[in-house]
Amino acid sequence: MKKVLVANRGEIARRVIKTLKKMNIRSVAVYSDADKFAPHVLEADDAVYIGKSPAAESYLRQDLILNFCKELGVDGIHPGYGFLSENASFAKKVKDAGIKLIGPSPESMEVMGDKLSAKQAVKAFGVPLVPGVDSAISDISAAKKVAKQIGYPILIKASAGGGGKGMRLVTIEKDFEEQMNMAQNEARSSFGDDAVFIEKFVEKPRHIEIQVFADQHGNIVYLFERECSIQRRHQKVIEEAPSPVLTSELRKIMGEAAVKVCRACNYEGAGTVEFLVDTHMNFYFLEMNTRLQVEHPVTEGITGEDLVEWQVKVARGERLPKLQDELKINGHAIEVRVYAEDTLNGFIPDIGRLERYRIPSGKNIRVDDAFLEGMEIPIYYDPMIAKLVVWGNTREEAIEKTIEAIEDYQISGVKTTLDFGKFVLKHKAFRSGNFDTNFINHFFKDPATMNSAMEEEETALKHGIDKIWSDINKRKKEAFKSRQIASSWKNRIE
Questions:
Q1: Residue 97 near residue 77 (C-beta atoms within 8 A)
Q2: To which H or E segment does residue 26 belong?
Q3: pTM of this structure
Q4: Active-site residue numbers?
């Protein structure tokens, strides 16, 4: 594999290009109008323009991307995450064109891309499932009966969904019909498929995912877990590895279950098996993401492995660089996603120009980003500015170092989620490890709580500074008095 086209943008495109350079593989970037001067374009060996700023007119143009691959003699395509990364039809086109997709097969994507087919596949391998149905339901009266049998609260979920779209929580029967109609309508508009299914709502769940890797020779490993329970709008904001609540025994059981999920769909490459974990530490299969995850750096942090390099090696037909007994957890890593969002106003995007942009640096601090000072954050894509990743010998050390790194950030021109990240990391629930996916609902219902916490911190800081100055002045007075006494004695002796 001598030349790879990165069919993506932003920080993940830069991340992939970095590893390709390390492996002496030429890289080809693609870009839209909005990304003409983006760092990933400047850092690639070659770059091609693929259209206007909206993703549908650029990054999702499958045939145009493939045409450029043929023109430039590309051997492989790395899809990153988002856009075309889990598109089975694109994966098939790539395969038919004689180009290697650095990812799983179209068949694996199809099985795991539909929640119902995924549930049916893993069920045969004994992977635990949330109580519910594993077939689509469209008839309201039949669906009501199923919900009653399962017992409220229940979730209505879009079969082809993701990111919380087409998902509705129903706590009482009288709301069922309205919520099901809403779920179907949203699923239809978002995915072109209104198939939904019903499952028991797991109360106080933790979202814990397992990083898996499989090669073409039958080897499958799990690279341990990531704790992803701090979320807003069903989207992760802070991740860490390992989870603060898993025992080594449960880690092994969940890891082996994730390996079974890979076997259920003849998987190849990097993937993530997501589980819900209840208050009794029972775990249930949620879904499989057939790609590299946004939060993969925390796994790299605790394993010391380059997962993109692993992806390329597997795509070239090589065996996995390490087998299960060679993988170990070292220390603790935390990732804070830095979004251009107004956290005090419902986390809505806050698009604008990065008037000032300075990132933290230092030992065990990693920033994966996609912007330079003075750049505009486009309205067309996800508003993530960067990922701050910090490693420590212990969880406590990692938390403290992450807080320090957040304080070293300098961003102006847009509102960001940095203060929210700091609020979470300082919160007693997070620090104790006793939290779940409802963290924001429980502790951030009133955004004033963050303002209050920040004001208390500023007051404490001010008091601390005042005390320091008071101590300095006191010592200066004592020193001055000592000098006077010394001078007096000197004069007497002379």
A1: no
A2: strand 26-32
A3: 0.87
A4: 291
